[in-house]
Each structure stands twice: as C-alpha cells, then as structure tokens.
Amino acid sequence: MTLKTSVFIAASLDGFIARENGDLDWLTGQPSGDPDEDYGYSSFIDTVDVLVMGRHTYEKVRSFDIWPYQDLHVVVLSTQKPEVPDELKKNVEVRNLSPRDVVKKLSDEGFQHAYIDGGRTLSQFLNAGLLDELIITRIPVLIGNGIPLFEKIDQDIHLVHEESASFDNGFVQSRYRIKSAAG
Amino acid sequence: MTLKTSVFIAASLDGFIARENGDLDWLTGQPSGDPDEDYGYSSFIDTVDVLVMGRHTYEKVRSFDIWPYQDLHVVVLSTQKPEVPDELKKNVEVRNLSPRDVVKKLSDEGFQHAYIDGGRTLSQFLNAGLLDELIITRIPVLIGNGIPLFEKIDQDIHLVHEESASFDNGFVQSRYRIKSAAG
C-alpha cells in the first residue's frame, strides 16, 4: 500500500479534542498572536488528497456554517447512512469499511496522502497499525472532561519524534512517525 | 504565601504516568542517547527544598531498592498512617492536610520551593489553584491505560507556556506557568 496516512489535530493539555458535547470553545477562544498564523494547517492540507473521518466528526463539521474542505475528497466511515446533501455529493462518500479496507480502496484509486480525522477514527487506524504520522498541537488549557484524543488503544504503540515547535500563544506542536505502521 | 509549587513529571503521549499497577516499564525501557542525560531533573531538584506526595506515590517509591531523595524533606499527604521506617523518620512526615493547609504550614516553616508529585496530588493542587509550575516530559509511546496525569480537573485551567525542548530520544519537555495559581 502506498497511501500515507496522517493525523493533524489539536488537543487540550489533558488530552481532549472536544468537550463532551463536541464544543471547541476552549480551542477557538485561545488567543492568537498573529491573525494569519494557522499552525501549519494550510501547508499540511495542501499535501493531502483525501480526508477520512467518522460519522461524529462529519456531523460536527456539517453543523458549521461552511463546509471547510472545498473540493477535497472525503470518505465518511459509518455503519449508518448519514445524510449527504446534494451540494456535497460530488466530494463526500459514506462507506462502511474497516481502516484496512479503506486504505486498500484509496490506494487502489490512486490517492497518495490521507488525512485521518476524529478521535475514534484515528485510534482505530493506530490499533490497526495503519497510521504513519501524527501531528498534535497541544493547547495550554486543561478542560477536565471531553472526547479523548486517544481511545481504546489496545497495545503499546511506539512513536518516533520528528520535530516540535512552539508558537507565541503557547501552542506546542509535535510531529511523530509511528513505528508499527504497516501502511 | 511565598512557597512556590512545581510539578516535574513524565507522561506517555496518551496521558498516563504509570500503568494501572504502578509499573513504569514503558518509561524506564525508553532508549536514552546519552547515559548522563537526566532531562533536567537534577537542576530542578537542586532548586527544591521540600517534596509533597500522596500515599500511593510514597508506597511506590518505598518499593524501590533505594530511597531516591537523600536528605530532602518529604511530606506525605494521607488520611491513613503509612509506615515510615526509622531510617526515614528524620526526613519524612505523614500529614492529613489539604493542599491549602500544607502550603500554609510549609510557608510558615520557611520552605521556598515544593515539588508536588503524583497524579492525584498534583490534580488536587491544580483544582485548589495552588500549583505554580508544571514541567511535563512527554514520552513517545501510547500505553492505552493507566494512572492518569490529570485526574478530576473540575474547571478549565489556563496555563502559560514558557518553553519547550526536545531530546535526541524523542522526549519532549514543556514548562508551563499556571495562571490561576494563588500560591
């Protein structure tokens, strides 16, 4: 398989990616020194040609005023059939596939670099040995409860630290390669 | 109160400070590039004149072959009465005190800088607004389960990032000041 799989995600210092109800106020309310600073997001997303997410993340993103992924191809992994409105049908497909099967399908279709999003989905890819890269941005706040960054990791997973950088507003971003990745 | 309170602790990338049974194999088994590298521990401990820990951490440290704190004064916070052997009685006192009361007592006794150790104890200090500094070293491994670094944080706690550094073996250390600290 030639598909590279990456996660690019922000988490509170105590390891949550959202509050229990999905709220991101603790993240969006953070001070930003430079209004043009995007913490490497646009240079990351420019290298990605497909986005894989779970149903919860899809429904959260759908609740935003605008669909933020423009023409990027999106695969929603779900055993259910969440609604895809007409204007998104060109780019969004819903599939009931395992991480292994979606990696195979996207590889076969010629995709090169998948952005894996959402806590449950990223943990499924980690457990399956199918995540290559983890870019995590730690926000300097403890929120106590919420949706965990890592969920049901079922064995030790060793990572290789590649680089870290900190931003003026206190965000600390680290990039890791995952040793066990079979992708 | 003039006592400064600091935490210096290692955690897995998924936020555990030990396995469920207290084991640190995931930490002690990490490769170390330089055998003399101590990740800033000795320069930190040199600034400390008292160590505050809970009973669980005390009993874990007691299980080691040697008592690692030499002549450093240690306060064990406990509602029970864990055994203190004769050779440690000079340095170790067991007290049933709240974070606020132990900070007051140590300030009154002239201590300057307390090292707060153990997940439950550090979270109690955080919740009481009595922690000034958090130095956390992230180990590049996911262990899935264990004793959490942060436990029952009961409100948002904002931190100020002061500096981060990474080591050749992939440990990433960040130092934060806590905004709400009343200490």
Tally the helices of chain A: 5
E-strand count of chain A: 11
**CATH level 4 superfamily of chain A:** Dihydrofolate Reductase, subunit A
- CATH top level of chain A is Alpha Beta
Helix content of chain A: 10-25%
The CATH architecture of chain A can be named as: 3-Layer(aba) Sandwich
Oligomer: homodimer
CATH topology heading of chain A: Dihydrofolate Reductase, subunit A
What Rg of chain A is obtained from the alpha carbons, in whole angstroms? Answer: 16 Å
Give a concise summary.
Two copies of one chain form a homodimer. Chain A is built from five helices and eleven strands, in the order E-E-H-H-E-H-E-E-H-E-H-E-E-E-E-E.
Please describe the topology of this protein:
Two copies of one chain form a homodimer.
Chain A lengths: L3 E9 L3 E3 L6 H4 L12 H5 L4 E5 H8 L10 E5 L14 E4 L3 H10 L4 E5 L1 H9 L5 E7 L1 E2 L4 E2 L8 E10 L5 E7 L5
